[in-house]
Specification:
heterodimer, A: mainly alpha, Non-ribosomal Peptide Synthetase Peptidyl Carrier Protein, Chain A, 63% helix, B: Rossmann fold, Rossmann fold, Aminopeptidase, 3 domains
């Protein structure tokens, strides 16, 4: 539960630093690719930061999975990894 | 049964020749024909020796004038009235069109039109043999009456009967002496061929192993130049104004010449071919030509440019040296031209003449996006796979590489000319692959091995096949490549250069485990040799040992 909150805070902060304001609801629905607000470099920066800060690696195969294109989907995948 | 033909003969005899073969097929089925031709000084009867046709020359007004077109149509109707068996007139003319057709139709006669300019028509049946790939069926959209039936595509190309089921015989045996046929059609500046032949014989090591036959058309220029070259190179011989080239196409290993009217004939005989455009109407899309098994076309070729002539000659040598590859490209086209167009057309004409013509939309070849063969696939997920690039990808590979968003990030940022690309294609050791998503090619990815002081190095790169590649697809492709090359070269050491402006790819490679090569490191010098055009100012030099891969591949 703590990790979930930390991850949500991470995503919100990451987006805010790039000028993307979100609330609790819009954050979960935010689509990394579909929003067209983040370029490839920014998304990869986020993936690397997740690995650095939380030791959670997102594999390329998981990144092409449509389910992980939103904060909600990626969060679920990361939480599953953390408990595995 | 009898058919009238209105054929333009004021400029060239192309229309006349194809209608002659159609009339011959009608004649073989017991039908007669009336040929109505433009007024002219030249007697065309010798060109029509094979058919027993009534021949009439019209005295025409200028076609640009409305009255001239009306008068032409009225004269045709009057001639048709003399032959009660004639109910249909076949039009093959760039000068006459919809207005002429309206006059004929108003007299309750059937009009069949042959066109390749996608003009508007008022006819009962339309044939157009031009192949424009997926755009072929829609060429006449909203340009024909609802009752008109349109038959579109190369299966309606009318060729001489000599091309019917006549295939290149050079496929059948292993040949010692290679034969090249060169032609610029009926005219052209033979200085182009003279330059090519001269450079070609400088490049061939055993001159006796290459025979060149040059076609001399009736309106060819600089004939003396090529004749002079033949005195120095006795392997060069000439065909003066040949009536039909079918048997020569069947007995040559490679045809080199202008695109023009030989396109479908060469497709029918499956003769390996290099063509270039010498006229505006010879511009074609690479993909459309490839559908016919023709992969080597130069939309521009300047024989005054010594480097282009040099590359052209090297391409000829390369294709002859690798004839099995060259022939294989011709052997299985997406679209077969079998030289039976006239037979198919007569089937339609006779059927249409005996039945009510049903209202129907255009019927043409179904275009399939059969981009290439898929002998070996590496499935990445439900929608993505990677396959090795094959020779059918030759043009798409170059077109993709030349896309601005690719070339501006490469070590060579200028556009690669087709000639340079083709020569490279036949002589490189690169292993290239193409990644598909939902059956669309997204990116090309390649690697190559290099042994330096017994140490195995791998270098490579990737570029988009169309538009931007999504970041996650690029990641997946690079991961696949590293895993794949790890299996092939377990002791290999990866070297690469990345444009400093390309922030994403720099970060991606770092994420995958690549690290910067120090200038004093020996890997740096090797990388410089592998990428001689990459400057330190513009490119990052990076390396990877497989032990440093950032993801676990042990499960695969």
């Amino acid at each position: 539960m703590i990790l979930e909150k930390e991850l949500l805070m991470f995503f919100q902060k990451f987006l805010m630093e790039r000028g993307i304001e979100t609330d609790e609801v819009s954050l979960l629905g935010f689509n990394f690719v579909g929003s067209a607000l983040l370029d490839s470099f920014e998304i990869l920066t986020m993936i690397i930061a997740l690995e650095t800060e939380f030791s959670l690696m997102v594999l390329p195969d998981e990144l092409v999975d449509e389910k992980n294109s939103t904060v909600r989907g990626l969060l679920k995948t990361l939480l599953t990894k953390s408990t595995a | 049964m009898m058919f009238a033909f209105r054929i333009a003969t004021s400029v060239g005899i192309g229309h006349l020749m194809r209608m002659k073969w159609l009339a011959l097929e009608l004649q073989n089925r017991g039908c007669q024909s009336l040929f109505i031709l433009d007024e002219q000084s030249e007697n065309l009867f010798p060109f029509l020796a094979e058919i027993e046709s009534e021949l009439v020359y019209l005295s025409n007004s200028p076609f640009s004038a409305q009255e001239g077109v009306q008068e032409d149509a009225q004269q045709c109707l009057q001639l048709m009235e003399k032959f009660p068996d004639i109910n249909t007139i076949i039009l093959d003319s760039y000068d006459l069109g919809i207005e002429w057709e309206r006059v004929i139709k108003s007299a309750d006669k059937k009009v069949v039109v042959f066109d390749d300019l996608a003009r508007q028509h008022y006819c009962d049946i339309l044939f157009d043999a031009k192949w424009l790939g997926a755009d072929t069926p829609s060429r006449y959209k909203d340009k024909l009456p609802d009752t008109c039936r349109a038959f579109l595509g190369p299966q309606y190309a009318i060729l001489s009967p000599a091309y019917k089921n006549n295939k290149n015989e050079r496929f059948l045996t292993e040949v010692d002496t290679k034969k090249v046929l060169m032609s610029l059609g009926g005219g052209g500046d033979l200085n182009i061929i003279a330059k090519l032949v001269t450079v070609l014989y400088q490049q061939v090591t055993v001159k006796n192993e290459l025979e060149i036959i040059v076609v001399i058309g009736p309106k060819a220029e600089n004939i003396a130049l090529v004749e002079l070259i033949a005195k120095v190179n006795p392997q060069v011989t000439f065909l003066y104004q040949p009536k039909c080239l079918a048997k020569y196409y069947c007995q040559t290993d490679l045809f080199v010449g202008a695109l023009g009217t030989s396109l479908y004939e060469l497709a029918a005989t499956k003769t390996p071919t290099i063509t270039f455009s010498i006229a505006e109407n010879q511009q074609n899309n690479y993909c459309d030509l490839a559908d016919l098994g023709h992969y080597f076309h130069l939309s521009t070729f300047d024989a005054r440019d010594a480097q282009q002539v040099e590359y052209f000659s090297r391409l000829i040598v390369s294709m002859l040296d690798q004839l099995p590859r060259t022939r294989a490209l011709r052997a299985e086209p997406t679209f077969e031209v079998d030289g039976t167009g006239a037979v198919s057309i007569v089937d339609i004409l006779l059927d249409a003449d005996s039945q009510q013509i049903p209202s129907a939309k255009a019927s043409s070849t179904q275009y399939t996006s059969d981009f290439s063969d898929d002998n070996e696939r590496f499935t990445l997920n439900d929608s993505m796979y990677i396959r090795p690039v094959n020779d059918k990808d030759i043009n798409h590979y170059r077109q993709s590489r030349n896309l601005p968003n690719n070339s501006e990030r490469m070590t060579i940022q200028t556009e690669i000319h087709p000639l340079e690309h083709y020569v490279w294609w036949f002589n490189n050791n690169r292993q290239s692959y193409v990644l598909y998503q939902n059956e669309q090619p997204l990116l090309y990815i390649w690697h190559q091995e290099s042994l330096v002081n017994d140490k195995q190095y791998i270098y490579g790169g990737w570029f988009t096949a169309q538009g931007e590649v999504p970041f996650n697809v690029a990641m997946l492709a690079l991961k696949w490549q590293l895993e794949y090359t790890q299996k092939l070269f377990p002791q290999g050491h990866w070297l690469a250069v990345i444009n400093k402006e390309n922030k994403f790819v720099n970060l991606l490679n770092k994420y995958m485990g690549f690290s910067t090569i120090a200038i004093e490191d020996k890997s740096f010098q090797i990388t410089q040799k592998l990428f001689p055009q990459a400057s330190v100012a513009d490119f990052n030099f990076v390396e990877l040992n497989f032990t440093e891969l950032s993801f676990d591949t042990s499960e695969e």
